[in-house]
């Protein structure tokens, strides 16, 4: 973001936006407090935030029943996936409390400050495909981001139909992916086109998941295949937005007919491509962890330094060349500011 001074015109607009925002927040608090004081609210019950619209959230008490809710003034911003205590009311309910989060997926706001975008996700499916050609350093970048978030990543090789009859391609992909099960990461093979989704369905069950991965690997195709109401899903979204004036690109939670929930949004799909620090990258390579802090130099970059514990581990074959190369590329791209 440009640091140059704002023109008077721009400064005026920024101030106007801030004022409007404050006014909206105030109205929201008033609406919630009025509803609470009005006594017309139902009993407190548990719910799940399944969508977010401006200052309101959509809360689900039981699958299929959704209510718009205001937030009680003392609540921090809620995100999709948050578990809450809420009371029904007319015309909206009120969220009165937020349960602690097991995990949160954060992304930097335009000022670089990390903001949660979804909560209580426990699986990140990193989707790859024979086409577009997968690169180890990109796969590893997703894995590192998942490690840093403390959420279990699972690799999904989609479009396996493209491997049928192409032995060379199968061999190349096999060689690229061979390291991951050795590191303890699961690799599932599916095809959203040829109906081979069984391993994915099983891995989604009883979890709240997101799909991430490069453009074109088939994330939308997978979501559509998993949610037979995908058209319905698009329809449901526009129906919701038609009711209010708020359109949204924030995360939505969907229940899968085969079990489990999926949280999806354009922002979440960019997960892993956000900025990370070198320390995070180092730590995110899980097989590096036991060697960290053992290099001769405290600020060792594990490039060519003498007494480097990571290089020694690579030398012994405890760290693969593929992963070491990935690490260097990722750190290199951070240093280039890319
Ligand atoms: N052969 C084959 N093609 C597939 C499969 N799944 C998706 N595709 C194709 O891959 C292309 C990209 O699929 P999308 O679902 O749009 O990919 P995406 O990851 O959502 O892409 P973005 O929206 O750009 O992030 C489309 O032409 C799909 O038809 C599959 O299992 N096999
Ligand atoms: Zn080192």
From TrEMBL:
Give the record's cofactor note, including how many are bound: Binds 1 zinc ion per subunit.
The subcellular localization recorded is: Cytoplasm
Recite the UniProt keywords alphabetically.
Cytoplasm, GTP-binding, Hydrolase, Metal-binding, Nucleotide-binding, Ribosome biogenesis, RNA-binding, rRNA-binding, Zinc
Q: Name one Pfam family in it.
A: RsgA_GTPase
Q: Which domain of life is it from?
A: Bacteria
What range(s) does the CP-type G domain occupy? 111-271
Gene Ontology terms describing biological process: ribosomal small subunit biogenesis
Family, similarity comment: Belongs to the TRAFAC class YlqF/YawG GTPase family. RsgA subfamily.
Protein name (record): Small ribosomal subunit biogenesis GTPase RsgA
Q: Which organism is it from?
A: Parahaliea mediterranea
